[in-house]
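Researcher: I need the complex structure. Ligand is FE2/S2 (inorganic) cluster. Inputs:
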Amino acid sequence: MPVAADPPPYYRLHVFVCSNRRPDGHPRGSCAAKNSESLRNYLKARAKELGLAGVRINSAGCLDRCELGPTLVVYPEGVWYGYRTAEDLDEILETHLLRGGRVRRLMLRPEDGPDGGHAVA
Ligand code: FES
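Model: Output:
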């Protein structure tokens, strides 16, 4: 939660896209093994084409929700998505990043995960 004296956010939205790659056969898998690098490049290119103002899309290391990946998280909302395809990213881009809505079918809840996740108290 922001404190009153905090400066305003530098970016309107900051998107972190996991690009971590683990060796083949790793029990947790990895987002890059599920095509996250090329999908991230697609998202960045589409965001640029659309001229999204105040939105930064960055590659991230492991976000520790590997089994649900590929994953990305949008701040300042802290909304997580698990996506699979370029069409999924188009929907996130148009619904969330452009219009401020949510793509419910792709959202990850704190309790989602192989061990029930770790919801914040
Ligand atoms: S490899 Fe993407 S969340 Fe861990």
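Model: Summary of the prediction. Residues 18, 20, 30-31, 62-66, 69, 71 surround FE2/S2 (inorganic) cluster (CB under 6 Å).
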